[in-house]
Amino acid sequence: MPTPRKILILGATSAIAEQTARVWAKRGDSLYLVARNPQKLAVVAADLKTRGASFVESIVADLDDLDLHPQLLADAITALGGLDIAYLAHGVLGDQAEAEADAIAAEQILHTNFTSPVSLLTWLANFCVKQHSGTLAVISSVAGDRGRKSNYVYGSAKAGLSAFLSGLRNRIDREGVTVTTIKPGPVKTSMTAGMKGSEKFADPAKVGKAIASAIDSKRDQIYVPFQWRVIMAVIRHIPESIFKKTNT
Ligand SMILES: NC(=O)c1ccc[n+]([C@@H]2O[C@H](COP(=O)([O-])OP(=O)(O)OC[C@H]3O[C@@H](n4cnc5c(N)ncnc54)[C@H](OP(=O)(O)O)[C@@H]3O)[C@@H](O)[C@H]2O)c1
Protein backbone atom coordinates (compact mmCIF):
# COMPACT_ATOMS: atom_id res chain seq x y z
CA MET A 1 0.00 0.00 0.00
CA PRO A 2 1.33 3.51 -0.83
CA THR A 3 1.81 5.93 2.08
CA PRO A 4 -1.50 7.76 2.64
CA ARG A 5 -1.30 11.36 1.46
CA LYS A 6 -2.74 14.16 3.58
CA ILE A 7 -5.37 15.90 1.49
CA LEU A 8 -7.54 18.91 2.30
CA ILE A 9 -10.63 19.39 0.11
CA LEU A 10 -12.39 22.76 0.18
CA GLY A 11 -15.87 22.59 -1.33
CA ALA A 12 -15.91 18.83 -0.76
CA THR A 13 -19.58 18.38 -1.72
CA SER A 14 -18.89 19.55 -5.28
CA ALA A 15 -19.79 16.75 -7.69
CA ILE A 16 -16.39 17.07 -9.38
CA ALA A 17 -14.47 17.14 -6.09
CA GLU A 18 -16.38 14.14 -4.78
CA GLN A 19 -15.34 12.10 -7.81
CA THR A 20 -11.68 13.09 -7.38
CA ALA A 21 -11.93 12.22 -3.69
CA ARG A 22 -13.21 8.75 -4.57
CA VAL A 23 -9.94 8.07 -6.42
CA TRP A 24 -7.99 9.20 -3.36
CA ALA A 25 -10.19 7.18 -0.96
CA LYS A 26 -9.59 4.02 -3.01
CA ARG A 27 -5.86 4.67 -2.70
CA GLY A 28 -6.21 4.89 1.10
CA ASP A 29 -5.37 8.60 1.44
CA SER A 30 -6.29 10.75 4.47
CA LEU A 31 -8.99 13.31 3.71
CA TYR A 32 -10.15 16.46 5.49
CA LEU A 33 -13.37 17.74 3.99
CA VAL A 34 -14.77 21.28 4.19
CA ALA A 35 -18.24 22.17 2.87
CA ARG A 36 -21.15 24.36 3.90
CA ASN A 37 -24.05 21.88 3.69
CA PRO A 38 -23.93 19.53 6.72
CA GLN A 39 -26.32 16.91 5.31
CA LYS A 40 -24.51 16.60 1.97
CA LEU A 41 -21.13 16.64 3.72
CA ALA A 42 -22.09 13.77 6.08
CA VAL A 43 -23.14 11.62 3.10
CA VAL A 44 -19.90 12.35 1.18
CA ALA A 45 -17.72 11.71 4.26
CA ALA A 46 -19.41 8.37 5.04
CA ASP A 47 -19.10 7.26 1.42
CA LEU A 48 -15.38 8.11 1.23
CA LYS A 49 -14.71 6.18 4.44
CA THR A 50 -16.49 3.13 2.98
CA ARG A 51 -14.41 3.44 -0.18
CA GLY A 52 -11.16 3.03 1.75
CA ALA A 53 -9.90 6.43 2.91
CA SER A 54 -7.57 5.81 5.86
CA PHE A 55 -8.86 8.91 7.68
CA VAL A 56 -11.85 11.15 7.04
CA GLU A 57 -12.71 14.22 9.06
CA SER A 58 -15.09 16.93 8.00
CA ILE A 59 -16.07 20.41 9.04
CA VAL A 60 -18.97 22.61 8.03
CA ALA A 61 -17.94 26.11 6.97
CA ASP A 62 -19.10 28.83 4.63
CA LEU A 63 -15.92 29.62 2.67
CA ASP A 64 -17.26 33.09 1.85
CA ASP A 65 -16.37 34.00 5.44
CA LEU A 66 -12.72 35.01 5.04
CA ASP A 67 -12.25 35.54 8.79
CA LEU A 68 -12.65 31.79 9.30
CA HIS A 69 -9.87 30.83 6.90
CA PRO A 70 -6.66 30.96 8.97
CA GLN A 71 -8.03 28.91 11.89
CA LEU A 72 -9.91 26.52 9.61
CA LEU A 73 -6.75 25.78 7.59
CA ALA A 74 -4.55 25.42 10.66
CA ASP A 75 -7.07 23.02 12.26
CA ALA A 76 -7.28 20.95 9.07
CA ILE A 77 -3.50 20.56 8.87
CA THR A 78 -3.30 19.63 12.56
CA ALA A 79 -6.01 16.98 12.11
CA LEU A 80 -4.29 15.56 9.01
CA GLY A 81 -0.86 15.68 10.66
CA GLY A 82 0.54 17.72 7.74
CA LEU A 83 -0.44 18.64 4.20
CA ASP A 84 0.43 17.09 0.85
CA ILE A 85 -2.43 18.39 -1.31
CA ALA A 86 -5.00 21.18 -0.95
CA TYR A 87 -7.80 20.93 -3.51
CA LEU A 88 -10.05 23.97 -3.95
CA ALA A 89 -13.34 23.15 -5.65
CA HIS A 90 -15.97 25.51 -4.29
CA GLY A 91 -17.66 27.88 -6.69
CA VAL A 92 -20.98 29.33 -7.80
CA LEU A 93 -22.19 30.10 -11.30
CA GLY A 94 -24.48 32.82 -9.98
CA ASP A 95 -27.28 34.49 -11.88
CA GLN A 96 -25.83 36.46 -14.81
CA ALA A 97 -29.04 38.47 -15.43
CA GLU A 98 -29.20 39.47 -11.77
CA ALA A 99 -25.50 40.41 -11.81
CA GLU A 100 -26.09 42.64 -14.84
CA ALA A 101 -28.80 44.51 -12.96
CA ASP A 102 -27.20 44.69 -9.54
CA ALA A 103 -23.50 45.17 -8.80
CA ILE A 104 -23.95 43.65 -5.33
CA ALA A 105 -25.04 40.37 -6.94
CA ALA A 106 -22.02 40.59 -9.25
CA GLU A 107 -19.72 41.19 -6.29
CA GLN A 108 -21.08 38.07 -4.56
CA ILE A 109 -20.11 35.95 -7.57
CA LEU A 110 -16.64 37.51 -7.58
CA HIS A 111 -16.32 36.95 -3.83
CA THR A 112 -17.03 33.20 -3.86
CA ASN A 113 -15.12 32.43 -7.05
CA PHE A 114 -12.16 34.78 -6.67
CA THR A 115 -11.74 36.52 -3.29
CA SER A 116 -12.40 33.40 -1.22
CA PRO A 117 -9.88 31.19 -3.11
CA VAL A 118 -7.31 34.04 -3.05
CA SER A 119 -7.65 34.26 0.73
CA LEU A 120 -7.30 30.48 1.18
CA LEU A 121 -4.42 30.21 -1.29
CA THR A 122 -2.45 33.05 0.25
CA TRP A 123 -2.41 31.23 3.61
CA LEU A 124 -1.83 27.79 2.05
CA ALA A 125 0.96 29.01 -0.24
CA ASN A 126 2.87 30.52 2.68
CA PHE A 127 2.45 27.30 4.67
CA CYS A 128 3.69 25.16 1.77
CA VAL A 129 6.65 27.45 1.08
CA LYS A 130 7.74 27.03 4.72
CA GLN A 131 7.68 23.22 4.37
CA HIS A 132 9.14 23.34 0.80
CA SER A 133 6.49 20.94 -0.50
CA GLY A 134 2.85 20.49 -1.32
CA THR A 135 0.39 20.78 -4.18
CA LEU A 136 -2.28 23.46 -4.49
CA ALA A 137 -4.83 22.20 -7.02
CA VAL A 138 -7.56 24.66 -7.91
CA ILE A 139 -10.64 24.42 -10.14
CA SER A 140 -10.88 27.45 -12.39
CA SER A 141 -12.82 27.20 -15.68
CA VAL A 142 -12.64 27.54 -19.44
CA ALA A 143 -15.13 30.38 -18.83
CA GLY A 144 -12.14 32.43 -17.66
CA ASP A 145 -10.39 32.13 -21.03
CA ARG A 146 -12.77 34.54 -22.77
CA GLY A 147 -15.66 36.62 -21.47
CA ARG A 148 -19.02 35.70 -22.99
CA LYS A 149 -22.32 37.50 -22.60
CA SER A 150 -24.00 34.45 -21.00
CA ASN A 151 -21.68 34.23 -17.99
CA TYR A 152 -19.06 36.98 -18.03
CA VAL A 153 -19.29 37.83 -14.33
CA TYR A 154 -18.51 34.22 -13.35
CA GLY A 155 -16.01 34.07 -16.22
CA SER A 156 -14.18 37.17 -15.05
CA ALA A 157 -13.83 35.75 -11.54
CA LYS A 158 -12.34 32.56 -13.03
CA ALA A 159 -10.07 34.63 -15.33
CA GLY A 160 -8.80 36.47 -12.25
CA LEU A 161 -8.32 33.16 -10.45
CA SER A 162 -6.36 31.65 -13.38
CA ALA A 163 -4.11 34.75 -13.51
CA PHE A 164 -3.61 34.61 -9.74
CA LEU A 165 -2.62 30.92 -9.99
CA SER A 166 -0.19 31.64 -12.82
CA GLY A 167 1.54 34.33 -10.77
CA LEU A 168 1.50 32.19 -7.62
CA ARG A 169 3.11 29.31 -9.55
CA ASN A 170 5.77 31.68 -10.87
CA ARG A 171 6.51 32.66 -7.26
CA ILE A 172 6.43 29.31 -5.43
CA ASP A 173 7.21 26.52 -7.90
CA ARG A 174 10.90 27.21 -7.24
CA GLU A 175 10.19 26.66 -3.52
CA GLY A 176 9.07 23.07 -4.20
CA VAL A 177 5.34 23.83 -4.26
CA THR A 178 3.19 22.73 -7.22
CA VAL A 179 0.27 24.89 -8.34
CA THR A 180 -2.17 23.08 -10.65
CA THR A 181 -4.80 25.10 -12.52
CA ILE A 182 -7.77 22.97 -13.56
CA LYS A 183 -9.95 24.28 -16.38
CA PRO A 184 -13.02 22.12 -16.92
CA GLY A 185 -15.33 22.58 -19.87
CA PRO A 186 -19.04 22.05 -19.16
CA VAL A 187 -19.58 19.16 -16.72
CA LYS A 188 -22.86 17.48 -15.74
CA THR A 189 -23.22 18.67 -12.12
CA SER A 190 -25.78 20.60 -10.08
CA MET A 191 -24.10 23.80 -11.29
CA THR A 192 -25.15 23.15 -14.88
CA ALA A 193 -28.40 21.24 -14.24
CA GLY A 194 -31.17 22.41 -16.57
CA MET A 195 -28.82 24.18 -19.00
CA LYS A 196 -29.47 23.72 -22.70
CA GLY A 197 -27.57 20.64 -23.93
CA SER A 198 -26.50 19.65 -20.41
CA GLU A 199 -27.19 15.98 -21.15
CA LYS A 200 -24.11 16.12 -23.44
CA PHE A 201 -21.83 17.70 -20.83
CA ALA A 202 -18.84 15.75 -19.47
CA ASP A 203 -19.28 13.00 -16.91
CA PRO A 204 -18.07 14.20 -13.46
CA ALA A 205 -16.54 10.78 -12.73
CA LYS A 206 -14.27 11.03 -15.79
CA VAL A 207 -13.43 14.65 -14.97
CA GLY A 208 -12.68 13.77 -11.34
CA LYS A 209 -10.33 10.93 -12.39
CA ALA A 210 -8.52 13.15 -14.93
CA ILE A 211 -7.96 15.73 -12.20
CA ALA A 212 -6.54 13.10 -9.80
CA SER A 213 -4.15 11.96 -12.50
CA ALA A 214 -3.06 15.56 -13.32
CA ILE A 215 -2.34 16.16 -9.63
CA ASP A 216 -0.25 12.94 -9.49
CA SER A 217 1.73 14.17 -12.51
CA LYS A 218 2.25 17.61 -10.92
CA ARG A 219 0.82 19.31 -14.01
CA ASP A 220 0.82 23.12 -14.12
CA GLN A 221 -2.49 23.36 -15.94
CA ILE A 222 -5.06 21.03 -17.47
CA TYR A 223 -8.12 21.40 -19.62
CA VAL A 224 -10.63 18.67 -18.90
CA PRO A 225 -11.95 16.98 -21.01
CA PHE A 226 -8.66 17.51 -22.92
CA GLN A 227 -10.33 18.68 -26.18
CA TRP A 228 -11.22 21.96 -24.42
CA ARG A 229 -7.60 22.99 -24.79
CA VAL A 230 -8.06 23.11 -28.57
CA ILE A 231 -11.59 24.52 -28.43
CA MET A 232 -10.48 27.40 -26.20
CA ALA A 233 -7.38 28.07 -28.32
CA VAL A 234 -9.71 28.60 -31.28
CA ILE A 235 -12.19 30.70 -29.26
CA ARG A 236 -9.40 32.89 -27.83
CA HIS A 237 -8.19 33.66 -31.35
CA ILE A 238 -11.51 34.85 -32.78
CA PRO A 239 -11.06 38.59 -33.46
CA GLU A 240 -12.99 40.79 -31.02
CA SER A 241 -14.74 42.51 -33.97
CA ILE A 242 -16.36 39.15 -34.82
CA PHE A 243 -16.67 37.75 -31.27
CA LYS A 244 -18.72 40.72 -30.06
CA LYS A 245 -21.45 39.83 -32.56
CA THR A 246 -21.72 36.15 -31.56
CA ASN A 247 -24.42 34.80 -29.26
CA THR A 248 -22.53 32.66 -26.80
N1 LIG B 1 -19.89 22.05 -13.78
C1 LIG B 1 -19.23 22.72 -14.72
O1 LIG B 1 -19.62 22.73 -15.91
C2 LIG B 1 -17.97 23.46 -14.38
C3 LIG B 1 -17.16 23.92 -15.43
C4 LIG B 1 -16.01 24.63 -15.13
C5 LIG B 1 -15.64 24.83 -13.81
N2 LIG B 1 -16.45 24.38 -12.80
C6 LIG B 1 -16.02 24.63 -11.42
O2 LIG B 1 -15.89 23.38 -10.77
C7 LIG B 1 -16.00 23.59 -9.35
C8 LIG B 1 -16.93 22.54 -8.79
O3 LIG B 1 -18.24 22.73 -9.33
P1 LIG B 1 -19.21 21.52 -9.69
O4 LIG B 1 -19.41 21.52 -11.16
O5 LIG B 1 -18.74 20.29 -9.02
O6 LIG B 1 -20.60 22.03 -9.12
P2 LIG B 1 -21.29 21.76 -7.71
O7 LIG B 1 -21.53 20.31 -7.53
O8 LIG B 1 -22.43 22.70 -7.68
O9 LIG B 1 -20.17 22.20 -6.69
C9 LIG B 1 -19.95 23.51 -6.25
C10 LIG B 1 -19.65 23.39 -4.78
O10 LIG B 1 -19.23 24.64 -4.26
C11 LIG B 1 -19.78 24.74 -2.97
N3 LIG B 1 -19.81 26.11 -2.50
C12 LIG B 1 -20.27 27.20 -3.15
N4 LIG B 1 -20.13 28.28 -2.39
C13 LIG B 1 -19.56 27.87 -1.23
C14 LIG B 1 -19.18 28.52 -0.04
N5 LIG B 1 -19.36 29.84 0.12
N6 LIG B 1 -18.63 27.80 0.96
C15 LIG B 1 -18.46 26.46 0.82
N7 LIG B 1 -18.81 25.77 -0.29
C16 LIG B 1 -19.35 26.48 -1.30
C17 LIG B 1 -21.19 24.19 -3.15
O11 LIG B 1 -21.76 23.91 -1.90
P3 LIG B 1 -23.36 23.75 -1.75
O12 LIG B 1 -23.67 22.38 -2.27
O13 LIG B 1 -23.58 23.92 -0.30
O14 LIG B 1 -23.98 24.83 -2.60
C18 LIG B 1 -20.87 22.94 -3.98
O15 LIG B 1 -20.49 21.87 -3.15
C19 LIG B 1 -16.48 25.02 -9.18
O16 LIG B 1 -15.37 25.83 -8.83
C20 LIG B 1 -16.97 25.40 -10.55
O17 LIG B 1 -16.91 26.80 -10.76
C21 LIG B 1 -17.59 23.69 -13.06
UniProtKB/TrEMBL annotation:
A Pfam family annotated for this UniProt entry: adh_short
InterPro entries associated with the record: NAD(P)-bd_dom_sf, Sc_DH/Rdtase_CS, SDR_fam
Cellular component GO terms held in the UniProt record: membrane
PROSITE patterns from the UniProt entry: ADH_SHORT (PS00061)
Keyword terms: Oxidoreductase
Annotated GO MF terms: oxidoreductase activity
Domain of life the protein comes from: Bacteria
Keyword Oxidoreductase attributed: yes
Similarity section: Belongs to the short-chain dehydrogenases/reductases (SDR) family.
Name of the protein in question: Short-chain dehydrogenase/reductase SDR
Organism whose genome encodes this protein: Terriglobus saanensis (strain ATCC BAA-1853 / DSM 23119 / SP1PR4)
